């Protein structure tokens, strides 16, 4: 594909960026599109995996047939087989009538199985069968049916680990991974981060009829050096936050530093741009730095947990004053909980206070005193934030997840975790 064809694709799908890894991913998508081969898209959360299946479908012979995107992580385990493969009348308590699943409805078209790593093992076995033979069986039936569906799958989890832990079938992995497409993390895309910032700044300015924010040179440098754990989703949220909250339209490095916490910024800089020549000494320094940061994180988490136990009524007051902003913890790069494999999860919250010295509704935003907002309070606040987002979006999870700046899968998990009724 020559560069003008590539640019046409980018324009058509609103894909911003010029990095060679991004171009390579789009190139592979276009090349594989006319075939029926399965494609597995991998990449960290927020890198833009969801654009690829659309490009594949629209450039395939199946483009006039159906395209379905299914988030495997957001469908409850008890209903996913029926959703995908359909069911017979009476197959389970609520099965009042028979129903086609996605494999029947998408016949001739493309199914995008997003968050495929979340599929239950029993469903994985059914999926393997349909991939190998084109055959499937509805829940509650013994009749074998045929379908012709092209599968494109995506995941942000490490499927090799999932295979080791017996959560994902190895045979299915190889079947899905016929053509792998890796979406690069934002920190490896060089100046793309600045282009994306500009695009999001213009989008939000048009939406709210205000001048777009611009970056000074040192602010651009900071953006390019930062590690972006939440990738493009995080950048989008950040750009929107700054556009709305900051009065200044020229964003300096100092203004940016109000939104990227020093800890996060430090480790981001170290990870993304080790200065000086690439030597063993440098690498050792980086590793020490990371271990040191990790140790500090664990120490402060312990402190937070201890403090939370001692929390008194005054903390309750603080809690009730806290106004969640919708920024995601991952987006701010601040771990509240560390799971066994060391993955940071959870949300940070910011407190917005109306300045007592002004009457112009001026808002000051400061990172909330995280140490005082111990885990329990954070959980309450996070739960509240999720409920509010779901209400705002009339229960539409995809939309609510987008507003919260988290993936639909994470939202689904949190709904379960907090037993939120939807
Ligand atoms: N190259 C790009 N140009 C413009 N916007 C992009 C680009 N890549 C991603 N985005 C935007 O970034 C956001 C996150 O992208 P997307 O939902 O595809 O992430 P993802 O890789 O599926 O993440 P997750 O694994 O968490 O689901 C979306 O709003 C998307 O429109
Ligand atoms: Mg996604």
Shape-level CATH architecture of the largest domain: 3-Layer(aba) Sandwich
The count of β-strands is 13
Widest beta sheet: strand line-up: 2-3-6-1-7
DSSP helix fraction: 40-55%
Ligand identities: adenosine-5'-triphosphate, magnesium ion
Count the DSSP helices: 19
Main structural class: alpha/beta
Mean pLDDT value: 79
Globally, the shape reads: globular
Could you describe the largest sheet, including whether it forms a barrel? 5 strands, parallel
What's the CATH first level of the largest domain?
Answer: Alpha Beta
Strand content: 5-15%
Distance between the termini: 46 Å
Q: What is the CATH third-level topology name of the largest domain?
A: Rossmann fold
- What is the count of distinct domains? 3
Q: What's the alpha carbon Rg, rounded to whole Å?
A: 23 Å
* Poorly predicted parts: 267-286, 317-376
Instruction: Output the CATH homologous superfamily of the largest domain.
Output: P-loop containing nucleotide triphosphate hydrolases
């Amino acid at each position: 594909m020559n560069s003008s064809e590539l640019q046409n694709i980018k324009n058509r799908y609103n894909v911003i960026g010029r990095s060679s890894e991004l171009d390579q991913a789009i190139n592979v998508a276009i090349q594989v599109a006319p075939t029926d081969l399965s494609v597995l898209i991998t990449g960290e959360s927020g890198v833009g995996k969801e654009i690829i299946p659309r490009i594949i479908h629209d450039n395939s012979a199946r483009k006039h047939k159906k395209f379905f995107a299914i988030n495997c992580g957001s469908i409850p385990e008890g209903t996913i087989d029926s959703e995908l493969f359909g069911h017979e009348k009476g197959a389970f308590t609520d099965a009042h009538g028979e129903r086609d699943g996605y494999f029947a409805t998408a016949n001739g078209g493309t199914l995008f199985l997003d968050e495929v790593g979340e599929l239950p093992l029993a469903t994985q076995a059914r999926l393997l069968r349909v991939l190998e033979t084109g055959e499937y069986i509805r829940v509650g039936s013994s009749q074998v049916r045929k379908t012709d569906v092209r599968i494109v799958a995506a995941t942000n989890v490490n499927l090799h680990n999932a295979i080791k832990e017996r959560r994902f079938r190895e045979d299915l992995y190889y079947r899905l991974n016929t053509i792998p497409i890796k979406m690069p993390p934002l920190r490896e895309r060089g100046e793309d981060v600045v282009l994306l910032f500009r695009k999001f700044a213009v989008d939000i300015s048009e939406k709210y009829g205000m001048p777009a924010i611009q970056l000074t040179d040192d602010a651009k440098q900071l953006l390019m050096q930062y590690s972006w754990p939440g990738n493009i989703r995080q950048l989008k949220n950040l750009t929107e936050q700054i556009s709305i909250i900051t009065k200044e339209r020229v964003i300096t490095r100092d203004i940016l530093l109000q939104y990227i916490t020093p800890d996060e910024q430090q480790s981001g800089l170290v990870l993304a741009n080790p200065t000086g020549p690439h030597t063993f000494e440098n690498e050792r320094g980086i590793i020490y730095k990371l271990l040191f940061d990790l140790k500090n994180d664990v120490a402060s988490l312990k402190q937070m947990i201890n403090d939370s136990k001692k929390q008194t009524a005054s903390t309750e007051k603080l809690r009730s004053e806290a106004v969640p902003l919708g920024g995601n913890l991952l987006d701010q790069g601040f771990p509240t909980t560390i799971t066994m494999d060391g993955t940071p999860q959870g949300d940070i919250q910011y407190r917005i206070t109306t300045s007592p010295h002004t009457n112009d509704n001026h808002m000051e935003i400061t990172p909330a005193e995280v140490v005082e907002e111990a885990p329990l309070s954070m959980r309450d606040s996070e739960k509240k934030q999720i409920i509010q987002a779901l209400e705002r979006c009339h229960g539409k999870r995809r939309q609510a997840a987008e507003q919260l700046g988290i993936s639909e899968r994470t939202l689904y998990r949190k709904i379960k975790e907090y037993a939120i009724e939807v």
